[in-house]
């Protein structure tokens, strides 16, 4: 049954709140639906349309550590047309890239020239709660907010984006995001490919029209997350870049609202994973394909040295299973690498990358379990309190006046994300900390290559339960944790912990 027909039959229009009173009739009217998901709302994949990979990849400008970011309505060239977007700088889809060394002080004035409030969350930075872009800490339209902090953490790829509750999805989708790269002595000593051989890639999906980047999620798109049919990399639609016959370091961010990618190279070459959200892994891991969910980062090495000059190959996303109804149904190409020159490459992949000590499970003083299955939506919970069809954690919607979890500073805890009864992927993100992934049961049944070391976002597929071990340190205050599917987050799939 198509959505339009279904809505017609049941007399609902998009945006209608389904309350307990009408539920019985709603379920009856749904009995002929092909699937029971979401009480009859069909979540369908948004198919990607590839471009011709003829636009040269470029990179956002480098940002100074003491400067103003102006959130603004501006324009950018997409698919050959200049269209309205949101940006942190004029004429650009993405904000400038910060490159800092551990120990650097950062002083950023967010000037909000949007017509609504916004803020900046520094995703992956361990900074004070009042600098973290909590949804309470906003710059109103026309005003500003000063972010001042010192970077006191190991090297890694972080990023920044707006976090105003119920507006995050729209603001990110229409262009507000940027990279924040931290370097340190340990990483420098490895002599990884750098300069032109180190390529940051922000992968996003967009809906591009001549009048701008469309963002108008229907009820189904709130359920599945909002996906685009056009893939942009660093804000460029369908790009290519020239490469030489040597190792490259790709610094990857999935900056999409909802789309999960299963990254691979089109020639089936090895991908060597050396890092993730929280920086370098202990040792490199060689794989052929790897999932990256919204909010996650990957640091990988690829070797073009065996490839004949003239060859064109692609970074692609392959089909994958277990992604629920709306994800993983298509293989598509993301960007093109043209091998154009021969060079000698002195680089060899280090066997040891970093020192990471595993936190002892026995050190955990508490285990907290979070039901992210949204079971009441999917499995006929009695909705006797008029609960709406929404994304929740432990049955709760975000409320900034309510502390959901009180955590003692300087203790280790096990947090369990239980999606065992769910039918949608949920990348779960904690602010203010990095954690270690202990294990995954159900679904894929195991940790994947990027899930050793330190993470701040972990993908929990339908049917899966993932346990993480979180060292809460002394950075006290009120922080959020949430699903990084931004439509789920904006829908209320976000809670708060207070560290004291
Ligand atoms: Cu990148 Cu609270 O999110
Ligand atoms: Cu989610």
Describe this structure in words.
With 500 residues, the protein is mainly beta. The chain has seven helices and 33 strands. The chain has helices spanning 3-10, 20-29, 168-173, 185-188, 219-224, 375-378, 486-491, and strands spanning 55-56, 62-63, 66-78, 81-87, 97-101, 105-112, 121-123, 144-150, 156-161, 178-183, 198-206, 208-209, 212-213, 230-233, 236-237, 239-244, 247-254, 261-265, 271-276, 279-287, 289-292, 297-303, 312-317, 332-341, 364-371, 405-407, 411-418, 426-430, 436-441, 457-460, 465-472, 477-483, 494-499. It has a seven-stranded mixed sheet with strand order 15-14-11-17-22-19-20, with no helix packed on it. It has a six-stranded mixed sheet with strand order 1-16-24-23-18-21, with no helix packed on it. It has a five-stranded mixed sheet with strand order 2-5-10-9-7. A hairpin with a 2-residue loop joins strand 19 (271-276) and strand 20. The longest helix has 10 residues, at 20-29. The protein starts with a helix and ends with a strand. The protein binds CU-O-CU linkage and copper (II) ion. Copper (II) ion binds at residues 391, 426, 483, 485, 488, 493. Residues 121, 123, 161, 163, 295, 429, 431, 480, 482, 484 line the site of CU-O-CU linkage (C2O).
């Amino acid at each position: 049954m198509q959505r339009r027909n279904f809505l017609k039959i049941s007399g609902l229009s998009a945006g209608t709140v389904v309350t307990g009173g009408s539920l019985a009739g709603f379920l009856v009217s749904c009995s002929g639906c092909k699937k029971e998901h979401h009480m009859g709302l069909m979540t369908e994949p948004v198919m990607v349309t590839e471009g011709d990979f003829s636009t040269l990849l470029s990179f956002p400008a480098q940002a100074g550590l003491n400067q103003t970011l102006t959130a603004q309505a501006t324009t950018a060239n997409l698919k050959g047309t200049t269209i309205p977007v949101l940006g942190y700088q004029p004429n650009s889809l993405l904000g400038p890239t910060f490159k800092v060394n551990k120990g650097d002080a950062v002083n950023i004035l967010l000037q909000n020239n949007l017509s609504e409030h916004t803020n900046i969350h520094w995703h992956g930075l361990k900074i004070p709660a009042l600098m973290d872009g909590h949804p309470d800490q906003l710059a109103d339209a026309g005003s500003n907010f000063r972010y001042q902090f010192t970077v006191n953490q190991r090297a890694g790829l972080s990023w920044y984006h707006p976090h105003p509750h119920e507006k995050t999805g729209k603001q990110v989708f229409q262009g507000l995001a940027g990279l924040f790269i931290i370097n340190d002595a340990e990483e420098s000593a490895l002599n990884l490919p750098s300069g032109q051989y180190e390529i940051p890639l922000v992968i996003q999906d967009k809906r591009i029209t001549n009048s701008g980047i469309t963002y108008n999620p229907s009820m189904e798109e709130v359920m599945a997350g909002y996906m685009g049919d056009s893939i942009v990399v660093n804000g460029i639609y369908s790009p290519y870049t020239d490469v030489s016959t040597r190792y490259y370091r790709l610094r990857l961010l999935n900056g999409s609202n909802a789309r999960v990618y299963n990254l691979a190279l089109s020639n089936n070459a090895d991908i060597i994973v050396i890092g993730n959200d929280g920086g370098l892994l202990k040792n490199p891991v060689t794989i052929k394909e790897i999932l990256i969910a919204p909010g996650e980062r990957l640091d990988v090495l690829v070797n073009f040295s065996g490839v004949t000059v003239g060859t064109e190959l692609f970074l692609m996303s392959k089909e994958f299973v277990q992604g629920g109804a709306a994800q993983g149904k298509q293989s598509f190409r993301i960007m093109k690498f043209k091998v154009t020159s021969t060079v000698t490459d002195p680089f060899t992949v280090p066997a040891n990358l970093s020192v990471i000590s595993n936190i002892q499970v026995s050190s955990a003083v508490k285990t907290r379990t979070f039901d992210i299955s949204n079971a009441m939506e999917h499995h006929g919970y009695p909705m006797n309190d008029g609960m709406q069809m929404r994304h929740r954690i432990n049955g709760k919607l975000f409320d900034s006046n309510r502390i959901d979890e009180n955590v003692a500073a300087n203790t280790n805890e096990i947090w369990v994300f239980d999606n065992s009864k769910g039918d949608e992927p949920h990348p779960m993100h904690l602010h203010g900390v990095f954690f270690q992934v202990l294990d995954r049961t159900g679904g894929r049944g195991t940790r994947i290559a990027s899930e050793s070391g330190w993470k701040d976002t972990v993908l929990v597929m339908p049917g899966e339960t993932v346990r993480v071990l979180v060292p809460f340190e002394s950075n006290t205050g009120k922080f959020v944790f949430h699903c990084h599917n931004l439509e789920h987050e904006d829908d209320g799939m976000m809670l708060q912990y207070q560290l004291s």
